[in-house]
Amino acid sequence: MSALLSLRGVEAAYGQIVALKGVDIDVEKGEIVTIIGANGAGKSTLMMSIFGRPRASAGAILFDGADITRLPTHEIARMGLAQSPEGRRIFARMTVFENLQMGAAVDDFAHFDDDLARVFSIFPRLKERREQRGGTLSGGEQQMLAIARALMSRPRLLMLDEPSLGLAPLVVKQIFDVLRELNRNEGLTVFLVEQNAFHALKLADRGYVMVNGRITLAGSGRELLANPQVRAAYLEGGH
Question: Tell me, what CATH number does 188's domain have?
Fold first, then answer.
């Protein structure tokens, strides 16, 4: 395997606040990789810095061997990265169908009908709701829409920021099952930031633990699930 995404010594800041402090991460093709950590650890900043917002102030971000550290966000998206951001951030006034059109715009609608059929087969609920405004959907349906919108661009790397946030346990299971199937059946590479450490590490091939902008632990999902430090901090009544 060769790394699809590599971060080397990445630093990023908001004004005087340094949020990322020399982060090294690899995501191999066909893997599911997760980053776990408490609120404020820098996980979301890491996700956003890959897309250039905020721009990395030091280090390098490579996608399939190409340096994307200084590229504009829209060019990064066209290379085959797609993000389902924290808080879902769907277009609330647009219908489900229109939201999916926005996702397909990155790929210039090259395979729109096929991709629409694909995401409707993955998320049948969205097909039922296709003419409904995004803002009127339930939280779980909005999360499905955010993921489906990202899939419409045919990404080589799907990045998700806190997909379980605020969702009922049954819906969380549905979302994670979909990610597992996409990875197994289509070989989709998934990079996941998640506060629900148990679900994330059960799903992931490998994981990283982030504390105060630094990677403090790395290992297979299974290894981290069994790690006493991880169990104490994130699995046994921790964050």
Answer: 3.40.50.300
